[in-house]
Amino acid sequence: MSDFNVQQEINKRRTFAIISHPDAGKTTITEKLILLGKLIQVAGTVKGKKNDRAATSDWMSLEKERGISVTSSVMQFPYNDRIVNLLDTPGHEDFSEDTYRTLTAVDSALMVIDGAKGVEDRTIKLMNVCRLRDTPILSFVNKMDRDIRDPIELLDEIEEVLGIAAAPINWPIGMGRDFKGVYNLYTDTIHVFKPGKGSVIAEDIRIEGLESDEAKALLDDEYADFCDEIELVRGASHQFELEQYLAGQLSPVFFGTALSNFGVREMLDGFVEWAPAPLNRDTDVRTVDAREESFSGFIFKIQANMDPKHRDRIAFMRVCSGTYRKGMKMRHVRLGKDVKIADAVSFLAGDRELVEEAVSGDIIGLHNHGTIQIGDTFTEGEEVKFTGIPHFAPELFRRIRLRDPLKSKQLQKGLQQLSEEGSTQVFMPERNSDLIVGAVGVLQFDVVAYRLKDEYKVEAIYEPINVYTARWVDSDDDKAFAEFKRKCADNLAIDGGGHLCYLAPTRVNLSLTEERHPKVNFHATREH
Ligand code: G4P
C-alpha cells in the first residue's frame, strides 16, 4: 500500500477490552459497538446469545457441546476516523487466565456495570489486573431501562470498591419505565431515550440546554427535582480530567442501555476521543516507543485447533511498534532464531485471512507448531523481551491422575506443553509425587483433559485437593528463606517453569504465613 502512512495508522488505533461480571451486558454492548462501527474483521467468535450464536467458530467439539466460546477473540472496526481493536475477554464458564492476559495486551478498558447490581466480584478481579499497568478505564452503567440502584450510590461504590475516582459524563433522567434519557453534564444536551430495536440504531434526538422549553416539557413535573439533582451531582462528583483518566486514576462514567442501543454511541464517541492510542511498552532493556519504525510484538494468547482443518495452534501477537508486512523476517528472541512470517492471519467471518500489514496496537495471529509460548517477544533483530505479561496465580486447583499409569511420560509432556501455552499451570509438591493443575476458570480443566486425550492420548482424572491459592515466593534474606522453606515444606511446590511456590490451603493460612515470614515475598503474579 503506497499511501499507507504508518504514523497516521498508529495514531488511529484504539485497542481495548471489556471488563464486566457475567450478565452485565458485555455481549450486548459488543454487538452494538460492532453495529456502530461496521465490523471489518472478526477473529474467533463473538459469543452469541445462548442458542442464537450469530458468528460461531466450531473449532472444538467441546466448545460446541457447551455452546460457548472457549477462548477470546479479536474484533477490528473503524469508527469515525479511528480503527478500534476490541479484544474479547471470556467471561462466563469460559473465564480463564486468558481473560487476565488479554488485559495485558490492551491500552485501555471499558468497564460495564449492571446498574441494578453495581460492582460485582468478577469486575473487581479484572480491575485488579488493570491496576498492574494503570490501564485507563471508561465506565458504562448499563440497563437504565430497568429499575436500577441510585446512580449516586453506584458512583460511590465504583470509587470505594475499585479505588478509582468516578466522573459522570452524562446523568440519567429517571430509570426503568420512567427512563427519559440522559443529560450530558459537559455539553448541556439531553439525549432523549428512544429504544433502538435489535440491529437498528435509534436516531439521536437531542434537546439543547436544560433551561430550554423542550427540556421543561420533557421533564414535566420532575423538572425542578432534576435540576436540583444535577446541581448536587456537579457539586459532589469528580470533574472529568483527561490526564487523570489516562493515568488510570479516574473513570469517566456513561449511563445507558445496551439492549435498547441507547447511550452506546455517546460512550463510543467519548471512548475514541479520549482513549489512548497505542502506548509505549517496557522491555527488560528499554522502553519501546509505539511509533518507532522497527517492528516488535509479544504473544499474549495461544489458541489451539481453531479450525479442525488445520490442526495447528494460533499465537496471538500484540504489535507494539513498527509494521508487520507479509513475508517479513522476525527474530524469535527466546530461541534466538530468525523466522520468516508469510502467513500471519486475521479472521474475516470465520475464514482465515492473510494480513498484509499491521501496525502498533493491532493483533495478528501466527501459526504455531509448538515453538511459540505465551510472553514470547518478536523483533526485527533486537534482543529485548517485553515485560508485564505475567502468569496469574490460579484460583482453582485439582490433583490430576492417570487412568493408565503407564502413560505418565505422555502426561508430563502434555502438561508441560499445555502449561507453556498458558492453558493451565502445573505444580509439583516437594513432599509427594502428586501433580496439581491450577486454573483461573473451571473450564480450563475440561480443556486440559480434552486436549490430553485428543492430542497426547492420555486419559486423566481430576480429584479435589485442598488448595486455596498459590504464591510465587522469593527472598533477599537467605537465612530467612531457608527457615521458611524448612517450616513450610509441606506447602511448597515447583511450578512448570521450575519456580518455587507456596500452596495455601486457605486464605487465613496465607495471611498467617505472610505474617510469620515477613522477609519472604509472596507474589500473586510471575513474569514469563
Ligand atoms: P454478558 O455478555 O455480560 O454476560 O451479558 P449479555 O450481553 O449476554 O446480557 C445479559 C442479559 O442482560 C441478557 O438477557 C441481555 O439481553 C440483558 N441485557 C443487556 N443489556 C441490557 C439492557 O440495557 N437492559 C436490559 N433490560 N437487559 C439488558 P438474557 O435474558 O440473559 O438473554 P436474552 O434472552 O436477552 O438473549
Explained architecture:
With 528 residues, this protein is α+β, with helices and mostly antiparallel strands. Strands 2-3-4-1-5-6-12-7 form an 8-stranded mixed sheet, sandwiched between helices. A hairpin with a 2-residue loop joins β20 (345-348) and β21. α11 crosses α12 (443-456). The longest helix is centred in the middle third of the chain and has 14 residues, at 223-236. The structure holds guanosine-5',3'-tetraphosphate (G4P). Guanosine-5',3'-tetraphosphate (G4P) binds at residues 20, 22-28, 49-50, 91, 142-143, 145-146, 257-259. Belongs to the TRAFAC class translation factor GTPase superfamily. Classic translation factor GTPase family. PrfC subfamily. Pfam families: EF-G_D2 (PF22042), GTP_EFTU (PF00009), RF3_C (PF16658). Residues 11-279 form the Tr-type G domain.
